[in-house]
Amino acid sequence: MKIYFLFLFALFFSVNNLYSQSTLPNIIFITLDDQNDYTEGFDGNPQVETPNIKRLEQLGTTFYNAYCPAPQCGPSRASMITGKDVFYTQVYNNTSYKCKTFRDNFTEEKGNEEIFTIPQYLKDSAGYFTYHLNKVMHCHENAADYDSITTDICEKGLSWNKIFIYDDSSIINTIAEANLGGPKQFLWSVIDDSYEPQMKDFVMTDSAIAFINAYANDASVACNKPLFLGLGYLKPHLPLYIPEKYFSSMYEDIYNLPFDEPYNYPVYSYPYNGLVMPPQPEIPYSDYDGLPENGVARSLADPGLEGSLSNYIEGLNPFPTIDENITDDVRKEILLQTIRANAILAYMAAIKYTDAQIGRFLDALETHPEIYNNTIIILFSDHGFSLGEKKHWRKGGLWETDIRTPFLYIDLRTPEKQISERLVSLTDIFPTICDVIDIPYPIFNDGSNYFDGKSLLPVILNPDTIFERPVISSYIEKETIDQGGCFPQYSIRSERFHYIKYQTNNVYGELDCDITKSITEEELYEIGINREIDPYEWNNLSDSTEFNPVKIYLQQWLPDSNLYLQETYKAIINNNVLDCYLNTSDIIHLSFDLYNPDGTFLNTHPASLTYNWSTNINAAIFTGDNIDIPISAFTEAELENKDRLIIYLNIYDAENKLIAFDIKYFYLHENNKPFANYQASSNGLTACIINYSLTGNYIDTWWDFGEGVIIDEKIPGPYTFQNEGSHIIKNYVEYGNENCIEVYEKTIFVADTLSKTFPLLIFPNPAQQEITIKIADESGNGIVEIFNAQGQRIFSGVSLQCGCTRFEKIDVSKCSRGVYIASFTGNAGNGSNTFVIER
C-alpha cells in the first residue's frame, strides 16, 4: 500500500478550502471497452456510425495516434489509471490481474508498492468527488478500489467516494441466446428494441443522468465538490447482444431467400454494395503465413477463432440454401464470408449502441449549462480490437489493430476542434489532468518522479507541437503453457515505424520457460507518417539489413534501455532540390532540423553532440551537421543493384548514446520510372478497370473517377457513376525524389442501360491446373475476370468476338485451393459463374 508523507495529511485536510466547485472544472471520464478505430474521425471503417463521438470531436482535441499500454483490459486500465507503465505494474494480462483487491497488484515484494490512481489523487489532492459507474477500472464488479468500510461518503478512502455497479438483466441473456449468430468465441445476437432499457450501459447512463440532475439541484449530493465522473461503457466488449435498431441494413440472415451477400463485392467496389471488410494482402492471409510457424506472433494471433467460424458453418442445421444453383463448396465460401461480415456488423452495432448512450448523456448535460460550460470530457478505449486481420480476432496481439485506440480531450470551457497526429499513450492521461487543473504531480517517497506518462497539455495548446517519444505496449500471453506466455512481448511505435519484439518460451516445439534457449522474433513495419506506406502491416522489414539502424534506434525504448519512456531529440533530414532520379553528376546537400526533447526548435545545433551520416551503399561515415554526398563517390558496381540510396542520420550525446535518428530515401536509375497501363470497360453506369499493369518503382498510387471520390487502392473495384455520359478516369502514380507524379487518363462513356446476361460455362469444375470458359459470341468484345472468395481480382484478360462460340483457356496452376468466381463483361452482354480449384 502507498505510505503517504505525514505532511500530506494537513494538505489533504485543507483541500476543500483550497479548491472549490467554482474554480475547478468537472471531469467526465468516459471509458470504452474493446473499441478500435471503427470510430468516426478515425480510419478504421468508412461505414461506422458514431455521431455523438463525432459531436465531441467538433469541440476538442482528437488524438489520432493514441496507443494503449497493453492489448487487454486489465493491464491497460491498470496502467492508465495509475499513470505507470506495465513494466512497473507487472500486470501483463487479465489472468495475472488480482481482481478481488486492486491494490494487491502492488506489493513491496514486487517493488511497486507505491501507487496513485487518478481518482484517488484528485479526491485527496484537489478535492474532487469521485464517482465510478461500471467498468472504469477492471473487475469493476468487485467494487474496484472502493472503501466499503467508511460510511461517510465525503470521507471515503482509496479511489472512489461513490460507486455504481449494474449488470445486464438476466432476461437479456435468455432472449439473446435463443437467437445466437456466431460461435461461442464471438457471440452476437439481434435482440428486440424493447429490451434496451434493461441493458447495462443504458441503465448506467440513466444513473449518470439522474446524478447530474441531482447535482445541478443540490451540489451536496457530491459533498459540494467538483465532479470526477467515471462512465465505464461495456460495449463493444463481447458478447454483442444488441437491439435491432442499431444493426445496419447490410446485416443478413443466413436463411433469407433471396440471399444478398452482406459484404462489398467485388472488393473495392464503389459505391459500396455491402460491408467494407478489413483489407487483405494480394494473397489473403499471406502476412500471417509469413510469421514463424511455431512462434509467438502466430500464438498471439490465435487463429482458432477463424477456424471456429468454419466449424460454426458446418454445424448449421438446417444448412442455408443461399442459391439452389451453386455447389456446396461455393455455398460454404459465401457463408464463411457472410459470417465474418455479420460478426463485424454486430461489432459495429455495439459501437453505435454505445455511441447512442453517450449522446443521451451529453443531451442531459447540456440542459445544465452551469455544469456543461465548466466541464472537461476525456473519452478513450482501453485498447483496440482485431476483426480477422492476420487471422486474428479480438485482442491480445501487438499489431496496430490491437494497440491503437480512439482518444479525445474536450474542454467545454474553451471548445475548439483540433486534430493531433503526435504519438500518445493512455499513461499520459494522468499527468495531463494534473496540468490542466494545475495541481502538483505525485512523487515517490524518495522524492523522485512518479509518472511514466507525459502531459499532453502542450499538444492540446498547440496540436502541431513536435516531440520524439516512441510509445511502448507490452503483453505476456495469458498462460505459460501457450507460446509467448513466459516473457514480456513488446511493441515500440514511432511516428513512421512499428517495431515488435517477441521472446519465445524456449526453442520451437518446447513450451516450458527457459530464457537461455528462447528465440527472439522481430517484426518491423514502415507504416508511414501519414499511414501512406504500409498501414495494414503486410510487409515485414525485420530481415532487411537496410533497416537494422531503425531497429537499433527503436530498441532503445524497451525497458532497461537507454531511452525507455523518455522524450529525446527530434531530427528531420533536409536536402537540396533534386530531379526525380539521381544521376552520377548529382550532389546531395544534407542538413537537418533539430528539436530538443521539449519540442523547441534549435537554431544552433549543440556542439556537444556528434552527427554521423551513413548510407546503405557502403560502410563510409560522414560527420557534421551539414554535409555533401556526391553520387560519383559511389562506384557503378555499388549502385548497380540498388533501387534507392538510403541516408541514415545518427546523433550521439557526449556519452556516445544514440539520442536522435532519421532516415530518408533517394531514388536511383531513371529506368525504374513507373509506367501504368489499363483499360476501362462499362456495363450500365458501372466502370471496371481491367488489364491493369504498373511496372517500375513507385511510392504510392491512387484513382480519381472525377466525382470527388479518391480511391487509395492499387486496382479499384467496379465504380458506379452517378450520371451517364463521358467521364475521365485518372490513375495517379507517385515516385522519385521530389513527389514526382505521373497521371494516366482514360475517357469512358457510361449509359443507364444494362447489358444482357448470357450463360458462362466453366470446365473442368473442380479444376486443378487450367480452366476453359465458354462464352457466347453474341455477348460481344469484353473482359474475362477471376475473383477469389474475398472478392479480390486475381486475373483479367481481353476476349474478342470471333464469329462463333469462344473458349478461353486460363492457367490457374498458381491459385490456391478454394472457390473462385469467373465473370465476363462485354459490350453486348455479360455473365458469371463459380468454380472450385482442388489440389
Walkthrough of the structure:
- This protein is of the alpha+beta class and about 850 residues long.
- Among the domains are: about 5-170 and about 195-240 and about 370-465, Alkaline Phosphatase, subunit A, CATH 3.40.720; about 570-650, no CATH class; about 675-750, Immunoglobulins (Immunoglobulin-like); about 755-835, Immunoglobulin-like.
- Helix content is about 20%, strand content about 30%.
- The strands form ten sheets. Strands 1, 2, 3, 4, 6, 8, 11, 12 and 13 form a nine-stranded mixed sheet that branches. A five-stranded mixed sheet has the order 32-39-38-35-36.
- α8 packs parallel to α12 (about 330-365) and α11 (about 305-315) crosses α12.
- The longest helix has about 40 residues, at about 330-365.
- The protein is globular and about 95 Å long.
- The protein starts with 6 loop residues before the first helix and ends with a strand.
- Mean pLDDT is about 95; it is low at about 1-20.
Summary tags:
Alkaline Phosphatase, subunit A, disordered N terminus, 5-stranded mixed β-sheet, 39 strands, globular, 19% helix, 839 residues, alpha+beta, 18 helices, Immunoglobulin-like, 9-stranded mixed β-sheet
Map the helices and strands.
Blueprint: H1 7-13, H2 15-18, E1 26-32, H3 51-57, E2 61-67, H4 73-82, H5 86-89, H6 118-126, E3 129-134, E4 162-164, H7 170-177, E5 188-191, H8 200-217, E6 227-232, E7 240-243, H9 286-289, H10 296-301, H11 304-314, H12 328-366, H13 369-372, E8 375-381, E9 386-387, E10 393-394, H14 400-403, E11 404-405, E12 407-411, E13 418-425, H15 429-436, H16 457-461, E14 471-475, E15 489-493, E16 497-503, E17 520-526, H17 548-554, E18 570-575, E19 587-595, E20 610-615, E21 621-623, E22 627-630, H18 636-640, E23 644-652, E24 658-667, E25 675-683, E26 686-695, E27 700-704, E28 710-711, E29 719-720, E30 725-735, E31 740-750, E32 756-757, E33 760-763, E34 770-775, E35 782-788, E36 793-799, E37 806-811, E38 818-826, E39 829-837
Parallel strand pairs: 1-6, 1-8, 2-13, 3-4, 3-6, 5-7, 32-39
Antiparallel strand pairs: 2-11, 2-12, 8-12, 9-10, 14-15, 15-16, 16-17, 18-19, 19-22, 20-21, 20-23, 23-24, 25-26, 26-29, 27-28, 27-30, 30-31, 33-34, 34-37, 35-36, 35-38, 38-39
Helix pairs in contact: 8-12, 11-12
